Amino acid sequence: MEPAEGHAISRLHPGRFANADQFACYLENAPVRIAVTTGPNHILVCANSAFRALLPTPERGSPGRSLADAFPEAEAGELRAILDDVLHSGAPAEHYGDLPRGTWLHGRSLSVWRVTHEDDADGLGIEVTDITQTGFTQDLQRKLSERMLLAALRERDVADTAEAARKRAVFLAHAGRLLAESLDRASTLITLTRLTLPVLDAWCIVDILAADGTIRRLGIIHANPEKQYLASQLEGRWLPQPDDPIGAPAMMRSTDTLAINVNIDLTIAAASNGEENRRILKELGICWFLTVPLLARGKLLGAVTFVGTRAGSPLAAADIELAEDIVARAALALDSAQVHDEALGLKRAAESANQAKTAFLGAMSHELRTPLNAIGGYIELIDMGLRGPVTEAQHTDLARVKASQQHLLILVTEILNFVRVGSGRVLYDISNVNACGALKRGVELIEPLIGRKGLKWDGVTGDAKLMMRADPEKVTQILVNLLSNAIKFTDAGGALFVNCVAVDDKVLLIVADTGRGIPPEKFESVFEPFIQLKDGLADRESGVGLGLAISRDLARAMNGDIAVESEEGGGSRFTLTLPRAMEPSAAASTPAN
Fold first, then answer.
1. Which of 248, 262, 243 minimizes the C-alpha distance to 300?
2. Which domains does the chain have, with CATH numbers?
3. Potential cystine with 432: which of 4, 164, 495, 581 (Cβ 3.0-4.6 Å)?
4. Whole-angstrom distance, CA of residue 218 vs CA of residue 198
5. Residues 6+ apart with CB under 8 A from 378
6. From CA 412, how far away is CA 406, in angstroms rounded?
7. What is the pLDDT along the chain (593 residues), one digit of tens a residue?
8. Rounded-to-integer distance, Cα 471 and Cα 451, Å
9. What is the 3-state secondary structure (H, E, C) of 102-145?
10. Are 232 and 220 in contact (CB under 8 A)?
11. In whole angstroms, what separates CA 82 from the centre of its chain?
């Protein structure tokens, strides 16, 4: 193997001399420093006098000795590393004044290349030259310039990358905000059609899958307003076909993101579905296609195809990631919008059914009251003997019929009240009402039931001056319902407690009993329509379970509420909360509006 061109030994080929001895003599006296080694230990084959003069101990530069052994250990290690690298890699090496200061090679140029000896053993050729101060300075300047240039290029790449990342982040934030604001399906679909990628100069095609599996091309939006006119010409005529290589048809075959940046003309021809469409697509300018599936909860909702118009800008992994990110957000928004629309549809259907039910109950209750009142009237006429003599047994039977008629009339009246409250047709006359006085009026109406049931009761307790804002008639109706329930579900010998207190700006009217109580899991259900408890089961003999439902609706309409505390076997405590009336002195000090 001959040394590389430019090294002095390349001009010292033995073929130019009469024999090897003459060549060795010339080499020995050559003005350049040259040595040749063999083997992995770098054993010297020869080293001319100029080379040996560099060695700390020239006699160690004789053939048969390791070149590295001629130097102190610190310098020997540096040299051995250079020689080993060239011997193993086969690549020539040149160190130009960059070796450590204080070593024998500092300020000199070291060139090393691999040679092959006659016995096929690999070795090294070594040349050492001096570097002038001017050359050394120029070399340092050259290296410094190279490093500065490389640093500048790296800084530019970093800046470009950071700017691209910033643009992507801004775009994702803007698009994500638009999609988040799209609550219904219609507004979300409109937002989808604006998913152009300005950072890539890409326009987009949006395909949506209908419930029956058909594909609807939602929109074709170009990022360049001047070319949007061309894109709009495709709407209604460029329809997706099952074998299209892009768009939703491609995603129905495989939901993997599809990037096409070669054979664009063939792709346009296969997807254009007509010569005129092909002409428009070519005029729009297409350099690549990127189709991303609209996937949500494992379901394909459609596809967005981005179309690049910038020549010579192949899709990078970051570009594909950006497209996938924005389409993933769009898919979630579209799925949420569809769920929202479905929920609204179910809500409207439920409201319609509820209105129909309420209307039916109102109509039926109203129609039932007329014959029930007639029945009651005729019972009284017969019982009075106006239709002929009545025996004692018949009086008893008529009394039972009358009681049943009145009970049925009460049930029908409850249903009518429930319908009126639920429909919002109830009028409220809000005024200042004395809390204890309201409790006493309610108790007066059901006090005979307390005595009949044999319950203990110590009367109404609380601040007699406490005032609240409410409709007195509605408060009485609520209290009668609460007191009736307390009496109904408390066994003989039990106790009833009624009092009122003020807490901040609220007035609490409390009806408590020592009855059988209510299981905690049914605290809310007792306020539902047609629910009534007796021993934990519905009791249809004493009502239809509308009293508490009506009472809570009335309380909330007066800016109040009803709550229950209870435990099975430990009694119940119902609390009616209403706004507290302003004290007269405070009202007088409040400036008028």
1. 248
2. 8-131 (3.30.450.20), 177-337 (3.30.450.40), 431-585 (3.30.565.10)
3. 581
4. 20
5. none
6. 10
7. 344 343 434 334 444 445 556 666 777 777 788 888 888 888 888 888 888 888 877 777 788 888 888 777 777 888 888 889 998 888 888 776 555 555 666 667 788 888 887 667 788 888 888 776 555 565 666 666 566 666 666 666 666 555 555 666 656 555 556 555 555 555 555 555 555 555 556 777 888 888 788 888 877 777 677 777 888 888 888 888 889 999 889 999 999 999 888 888 899 888 888 888 888 888 888 888 889 898 888 889 888 888 887 766 556 777 788 778 878 877 877 777 777 777 777 778 877 776 776 666 666 666 676 777 778 788 888 888 887 888 888 888 888 887 777 667 666 666 666 666 665 566 788 999 999 999 998 888 788 788 888 888 888 898 889 999 999 888 988 888 888 888 888 888 889 999 999 999 999 999 999 988 888 777 777 777 655 555 443 444 455 566 788 788 889 889 999 998 888 888 899 999 999 987 654 443 344 33
8. 29
9. CCCCCCEEEEEEEEECCCCCEEEEEEEEECCHHHHHHHHHHHHH
10. yes
11. 57
Residue bearing tokens 């605290």 = 523
Tokens of 407: 């009970």
Retrieve residue 273's tokens. 């579905």
